[in-house]
Amino acid sequence: MKRAFAGFPSGVAALSALVDGDPTLMIVSSFAVGVSYDPPMVSFAVQHGSTTWPVLSRTPAIGVSVLGEEHTGKARQMGSRSKESRFAGLGTREAASGAIFLEGAPVWLECIVERSYPAGDHDIILLRVLAMMTDDERNPVVWHRQTFKLLGN
After folding, report:
1. Range from 27-41, 69-83, 130-144 carrying the lowest mean pLDDT
2. What's the rounded Cα separation, in Å, for the pair 27 and 52?
3. Residue 41 forms beta bridges with which residues?
4. Under a CB-based contact definition with an 8 Å cutoff, are residues 104 and 70 in contact?
5. Which of 3, 62, 95, 106 sits between 20 and 30 A of 15, alpha carbons compared?
6. Residue 136, φ and ψ in degrees, nearest 5
7. Per-residue confidence at 84, pLDDT binned at 50, 70, 90?
8. For every residue of 99-148, which 3-state class applies, written as one string?
9. Which helix (H) or strand (E) holds 93?
10. Per-residue CA distances from 115 to 15, 25, 44 (Å)
11. Domain 2-148 in this protein, CATH class
């Protein structure tokens, strides 16, 4: 099953925010845009065993940064189990809401949790987009066959 699912390329995003004064980050490869345009919504799936999502889900707002080409060397670090080193060497910006965004991302979305739906060993999380920014000069990366890949021009 994992091999079959890995054969489908997917977008990768960092979800991050300040939680009780601590920057918190998780990487998702199940990120989907265009769930709804009115109101704007996006989604992702999170494993029931995640230790980061229960913490991050308590925040008033979450920053979603679509990973760009310059993040490929740091992506595994951002997804590591060592929460202390996830932000090492990364440039960030913080919104007044506490949402954190990664510099160099082609897309930033400031979101709130709209709903959560059980889905087997995961939950599907629906996020409502409050604000957004795009940088057409930056290209996203995709997750395909357990590696990060750059998109062709």
Report:
1. 69-83
2. 10
3. 36, 128
4. yes
5. 3
6. -70, -10
7. low
8. EEEECCCCEEEEEEEEEEEEECCEEEEEEEEEEEEECCCCCEEEEECCEE
9. strand 92-94
10. 16, 20, 11
11. mainly beta
3-state secondary structure of 97: coil
Place of tokens 């890949």: 149
For 6, the enclosing helix (H) or strand (E) is: helix 2-6
DSSP at 13 = E
Token pair belonging to 13: 């995003």
d(CA 153, CA 112): 33
Residue 68 CB coordination number (10 Å): 21
Supply 76's token pair: 């595994």
What's the Cα-to-Cα distance from 116 to each of 53, 101, 107, rounded to whole Å? 12, 23, 23
User: Which residues does residue 131 pair with via DSSP β-bridges, in sequence order?
Assistant: 110
The domain segmentation of the chain, as residue ranges, is 2-148
